[in-house]
Amino acid sequence: MTRSSGLHAFSTLGIVFTASVASFAPARAQEASTLQFGNLERTVTIAHDKFTALADAMPEGTFPWRPMEGVRSVSDVYIHVSADNFFVPTLMGLEAPRETGITNDVLTFRAHQEREMSKAEIVDAVDASFRFLLSAMESTRGELNRTVTLGGSDTTVGDLWIRAITHIHEHLGQSIAYARTNGVVPPWSG
Fold it and tell me: What is the pLDDT of residue 20?
């Protein structure tokens, strides 16, 4: 085979491959969208497991600890995450559980964070908030491109989920740092 016939065969193979891939593109695009949302749900499930395990592993005496004045305490972070997990779906038109007192009014979100709670109540609230969040995610699975208004600007349901998940992970990192500073090794890291 000469160099030019080899290049011709290679380019022909490339055209056949491209045509083959293009014929599957619409089906693959749909699978990719479903897979991506499933990945978001799995990411929230992992964060749920880690947050509840870490909150449970923290001694109750560490819950008032904060790294410095003016910064959230251990308990404040957990309560904030649970409040946000209940609040974000209300921005998409879903109702948070009545007992939380949270609606789509940011003042209810803030009021929820002011509650005094024991360690057991906080761990339960974190767990319940993640279960609610996952249920809300599932209920909006087919609405990711639906427009919602956030702070006077239009965005989509899918964008809100990405923001929420990013926010969850910011506070997971914060909670891990708080735990390690207080001598607690995150249970999943051995």
Answer: 44
